[in-house]
Amino acid sequence: MIPRGFCGLTSMRRLHGFRAHMDGDWCSLDELGPLSQLKLLKVIQLESVSSASFAAKARLGEKIHLIDLFLHCTSKLGDYWFGKEYEGISQAEQQRIAEVFDELCPPPSVENLHIEGYFGHQLPSWMISTLTVPLHNLKTLYFSDLACCTQLPNGLCQLPYLHLLQVCNAPCIRRVETGFLQAATTPFPRLNNLSLIGLVEWEEWEWEEQVEAMPHLDELFLYNCRLRRVPLGLASNARALKKLIIQDIQHLSYLENFPLIVYLTLLGSPDLERITNFPNLQKLTITDCPKLNVLESVPALNMLVLEDYTMEELPEYMRDIKPRHFQLFCRLWLLCSVATGQSSIEWDKFSHVEHVKAYAYDDMNKRMWYVMYTRSDNFEIDSNISRSSIFKEKLYLLLW
């Protein structure tokens, strides 16, 4: 704790870990009021603030030099951030924390804002309103552990300099509605990095094809949700999008018609079946997507990385694509089949690739096996797997 009298340090520029403690003789939010020179402020344990009147005494809106602001509550999600809605927060608590945060409206000078552990039903009013959002200099915005929040605020899309937005662990958001993008002439005019992580119940993203938004979005990361389809508006209007990472998304069955994406990474998407029409795609990484059976219209593909330790044969789509480089991580049984070269049933799926590197691990012997292949070297295979090893592996699997 910090003893009272802290407000006398009026020349302070950076203050980390200020506890919003309200008991006894310790420092509380009113001690922040006179600290007008602050450039960085991190306030923690805001759940301890019993009334909005205490938050008002911090006079955040008057700190015209403030650039970096961190507003933290102790997370209500705990180890259950990837689960369902947290049920231990009363409506009265939600209302109280919302009123406290409403009084913590930042000054227009703030460029970097972190809000963590907030458990109100809606985000602060100074974010929701499309007319009074004061954060017109904001460049980066992070939300984390929003236990009860049900929607993203509409006011963010009009921030003229926002270039990075990350939302992490918001289990009550089920839809991202049209209002998220329709409160400005060009929504998110400079946003180039968007991450939506741990929205575990999120199923629908409303973005119609005719709604122009995010013209400078360069990188998009979607992780751990139930999104059934990527909206048409994203493919049509995010004209600068070069990098797309999709991880642990349930129910997503296809990706198609992204004209400018260069790097695509797919991790643990169990229902993905089809990828088509990525004319500028150069590097594709696929990990644990067992239903993927269609990969087509990727003429610029230079590197394919495939990692799957359960598949028993190379996918059929390998016959129809022509990457220059192919990197494979698989079970030892499949690697042994690849190692037999032209006599392998897999030969027609990789022989046309210029460079192949394939790896497997032997759990019994703790050894890494490899197969190397270069098409220009007269189709020769380089491997540390001997023919006897291949025979033993086949025999072991048959007996097992």
TrEMBL record:
Query: Which branch of life, at top level?
Result: Eukaryota
Q: Which InterPro entries match?
A: LRR_dom_sf, LRR_R13L1-DRL21
Can you give the residue ranges of the R13L1/DRL21-like LRR repeat region domain?
A: 29-168
Query: What is the protein name stated in its UniProt record?
Result: R13L1/DRL21-like LRR repeat region domain-containing protein
Q: What is the lineage of its organism?
A: Eukaryota, Viridiplantae, Streptophyta, Embryophyta, Tracheophyta
